[in-house]
């Protein structure tokens, strides 16, 4: 599996000065799975911002020394990034900080705007100069421009939301307020909670609230703006209920942590239901069901419970390798470095292998080979998602049809290509089993995009070499 989520966002609002940098650090640690390229924290110390951002994991970027240098403050905003728009360089680290005519702000964003290229081009034609290639800067620019015409930063954000299209969960910090907003479709999750001492925390996923000892309060509604200030918490809903909720269904299948709950649905339970549905539509006679760590494990449990075939641990993951691990020696099989098969579990067995997706098929082929090398007699692969057939414009890197094996091969061909005895995907119509009652985005599986999609996103034009330009 090599699909990446774009980002995790985290915010802290305390009524009195506190060590908010540490709170943000623990929150970001819990959101590390959403982005492993870079991270950053900005602390608001009585209107003065102190920040630290860099490439690397949270534990690498924020040493004890770096954290100790942060002042106490009443607010902080933090970010973990996997860039789907903009290259992995320091200038694209978030939160973005902006000084403008009416003050300053720091902004962290998760998602992709589907009209980012059009918005950016319009700004550039009116003289705007950009320092980064990420569309977060486009949002910052539009909010800043609106701020010149409005009486408050939340009014500016509300105006900006009239022009932003696509996926965005935003946390924005001004000298006096912490403001968060979720796009009107609610593509990306965003929730908030409260600690015992009255500190508010906002996070992409509820697992990060639990990590800092906060009680979950609720998810933001799609289109909602929440303002945290000395006056309390104010909810603005002028953008709510204008669109039908379209939470990314792949959050449940792969991106989110299993201990998170989104829109009242446990990710762990959703994956178990996906596994159960798979067992019903693609039954097979086998001795054991195993999952690919980590996100295939819960679905494997579901498949086992529904089918009655015993569940086992057949693959062990090297815990010390992150999702973005790249071997310095490319001759080495990266799958063998990340995963190993338990011979005594699979030897001589007919194995059902559950994974969360197949992108190009190369990883699946290597995992199947691992199991056969360990003695598996048969390997029946079951995938807890439908085949990827369309690009995503809302914050993941499923962006090119030629890289999606299901666009060019039948299920039988893919099964043969990966060396499996049989292959079965979760049907698109069974996605509803994951989160009953929820309306969701499944565009990468069925092509039904909730918004207009860009003809050419122009995503990487700033990273193209002159010789690569057309
Ligand atoms: Fe999620 Fe796929 Fe929709 Fe993108 S297109 S938001 S990955 S369901």
Description of the structure:
This protein has 470 residues and is α+β, with helices and mostly antiparallel strands. It is 26% helix and 25% strand. The chain is built from 15 helices and 23 strands. The protein has helices at residues 20-30, 58-61, 64-69, 116-125, 135-147, 153-161, 206-211, 250-255, 267-281, 297-307, 334-338, 343-346, 362-373, 411-418, 443-446, and strands at 7-18, 38-45, 48-55, 73-81, 96-100, 103-110, 169-173, 178-182, 191-194, 200-203, 215-219, 225-229, 232-236, 247-248, 261-262, 265-266, 288-291, 315-317, 339-341, 350-355, 378-383, 422-425, 440-441. A seven-stranded antiparallel beta sheet has the order 3-2-4-1-10-9-11. Helix 4 crosses helix 5 (135-147) and helix 5 (135-147) crosses helix 6 (153-161). The longest helix is centred in the middle third of the chain and has 15 residues, at 267-281.
**Number of H- or I-type helical stretches:** 15
Largest sheet: 7 strands, antiparallel
Mean pLDDT: 91
Query: What is the number of beta strands?
Result: 23
- How would you name the oligomeric state of the polypeptide chains in this document? single chain
- Distance N terminus to C terminus? 31 Å
Strand content: 15-25%
What structural category arises from helix and sheet content? alpha+beta
């Amino acid at each position: 599996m090599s699909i990446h989520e774009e980002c995790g966002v985290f915010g802290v609002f305390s009524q009195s000065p506190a060590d908010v940098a540490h709170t943000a650090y623990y929150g970001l640690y819990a959101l590390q799975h959403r982005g492993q390229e870079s991270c950053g924290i900005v602390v608001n110390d009585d209107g003065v911002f102190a920040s630290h951002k860099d490439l690397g994991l949270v534990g690498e970027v924020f040493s004890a020394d770096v954290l100790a240098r942060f002042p106490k403050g009443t607010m902080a905003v933090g970010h973990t990034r996997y860039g789907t728009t903009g290259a992995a360089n320091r200038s694209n680290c978030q939160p973005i900080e902006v000084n403008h005519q009416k003050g300053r702000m720091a902004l962290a964003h998760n998602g992709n705007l589907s009209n980012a290229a059009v918005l950016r081009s319009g700004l550039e034609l009116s003289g705007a100069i950009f320092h980064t290639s990420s569309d977060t800067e486009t949002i910052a620019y539009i909010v800043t421009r609106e701020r010149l015409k409005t009486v408050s930063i939340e009014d500016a954000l509300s105006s900006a939301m009239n022009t932003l299209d696509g996926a965005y969960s935003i946390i924005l910090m001004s000298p006096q307020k912490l403001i968060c907003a979720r796009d009107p479709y609610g593509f990306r999750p965003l929730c908030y909670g409260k600690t015992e001492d009255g500190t508010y925390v906002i996070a992409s996923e509820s697992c990060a609230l639990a990590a800092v000892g906060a009680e979950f309060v609720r998810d933001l509604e799609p289109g909602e703006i929440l303002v945290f200030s000395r006056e309390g918490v104010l909810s603005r809903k002028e953008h709510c209920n204008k669109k039908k909720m379209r939470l990314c269904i792949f959050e449940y299948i792969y991106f989110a942590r299993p201990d998170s709950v989104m829109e009242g649905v446990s990710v762990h339970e959703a994956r178990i239901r996906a596994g159960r549905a798979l067992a019903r539509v693609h039954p097979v006679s086998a001795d054991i069901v195993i999952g690919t760590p980590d996100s295939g494990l819960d679905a494997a449990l579901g498949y086992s419970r529904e089918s009655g075939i015993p569940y086992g641990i057949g693959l062990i993951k090297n815990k010390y390798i992150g999702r973005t691990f790249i071997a310095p020696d490319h001759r080495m099989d990266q799958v063998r470095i990340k995963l190993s098969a338990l011979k005594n579990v699979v030897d001589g067995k007919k194995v059902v292998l559950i994974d969360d997706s197949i992108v190009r098929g190369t990883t699946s082929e290597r995992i199947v080979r691992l199991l056969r090398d360990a003695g598996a007699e048969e390997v029946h692969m079951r995938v807890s998602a439908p085949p990827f057939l369309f690009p995503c414009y809302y914050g993941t890197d499923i962006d090119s049809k030629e890289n999606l094996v299901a666009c060019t091969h039948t299920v039988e061909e893919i099964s043969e290509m990966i060396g499996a005895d049989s292959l079965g995907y979760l049907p698109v119509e069974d996605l509803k089993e994951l989160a009953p009652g929820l309306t969701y985005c499944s565009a990468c599986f069925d092509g039904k995009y909730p918004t207009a999609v860009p003809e050419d996103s122009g995503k990487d034009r700033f990273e193209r070499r002159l010789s690569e330009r057309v």
